[in-house]
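User: I'm writing a short report section on ligand binding and want a predicted complex to refer to. Could you take this sequence and 3JN and write out the structure as tokens? A short remark afterwards would be nice.
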Amino acid sequence: MSGKKFNIAVAGATGAVGNQMITCLEESKIPLNSVRFLASHRSTGRKLRFKGDFIEVEELTENSFKGIDIALFSAGGGTSKKFAPIAAKDGCVVIDNSSAWRMDPDVPLVVPEVNPHAIADYTNKGIIANPNCSTIQMVVAINPIYRKCGIKRIVVSTYQAVSGTGKRAIDELFNQTRSMINFLDYEINVYPHRIAFNCLPQIDVFLENGYTKEEMKMVNETRKIFEDDSIGVTATTVRVPVFYGHSESVNIETKEHISADEAKSLLANAPGIKVVDDPANNIYPLAIDAAGQDLTLVGRIRNDESIPNGINMWIVADNIRKGAATNTVQIAEILAEKYL
Ligand code: NAP
Ligand code: 3JN
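Assistant: Sure. The structure tokens for the complex follow:
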């Protein structure tokens, strides 16, 4: 670091992701001059803890970014679309967690373990995009195999925690579960169906091609991050009654053969990954183990015996940390250390 201290704003500070961003900033080595917490008018005046102090939440307005060096956004796509360019115009670099800017060709889409070089392109628009949580953990886990053997095709099914939908969905799973085990009526407010004791094969809205928006985010973001439109990706995304931690069953067809044992040792030495794979002792990645930490856990690594060059894996990560807040703060750390 150059000795510079940074002024950082968190937009969406009162949300599930924003709250975790604050924790990640507390844990980060970025030297801070000041922090500013922004949310909607509903939260103005609320106080949030930061490093032992209480910081008052301010309403996000067009004037919020004057004097700010880096703004971490997680206040929804509409807010990002409107305010990220305003913040950038004030000389601040925005790292945005929404899908608003991810597929803009002038905006880098970054997972630090996979394509940190892309951060340099922040100069185009002053905006860097953070991928969708389901994409992040998948590309972290398959990156070592992609670099060594190439990948022709990915087939992924996800098992996504309700925290991916935000604080209202966390409450919905809790309330429905409590009502049901007490034989009481329950309310359905967030998802189209009950989520307690159920699995919903729908995340986000359906598109004309029959896939959901979440599924197509995984397809398009994976190709952009690897800068490789030749990779075939097909996804089924499912919401499950888990609070924290997304799990994924991933099948990849590689260009060159790799054995399951080679894949395991490749992954064991790769950044951001912990191989958890000892089936003889019933050891494999679990959402309850992924929650609250930053590594992407990979296990059940085995050859797909139905094709010559295939690998199956089970990939689990904390969707709010590595899937959102941690990835954002990692980008901010690189930006602060190398570019600002
Ligand atoms: P959440 O728990 O519902 O929180 C939403 C946050 O946005 C709150 O701080 C809210 O402030 C703020 N907000 C809403 N409307 C606003 C407005 N008009 N102006 C200023 N602030 C506003 O949602 P979340 O789970 O944290 O997700 C927030 C966003 O992060 C999502 O919409 C999505 O774009 C992104 N996200 C990304 C990933 C990923 O995969 N990388 C995962 C989850 C979410 P109040 O408390 O004042 O209402
Ligand atoms: O549902 C999940 O597990 C992840 C959700 C992410 C999300 C939720 C609301 C809006 C996004 C996202 O990051 O893609 C968005 C969005 O910005 O489109």
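A remark for your report: The longest strand covers residues 151-160. The chain has two domains: 6-130+324-339, 134-319.
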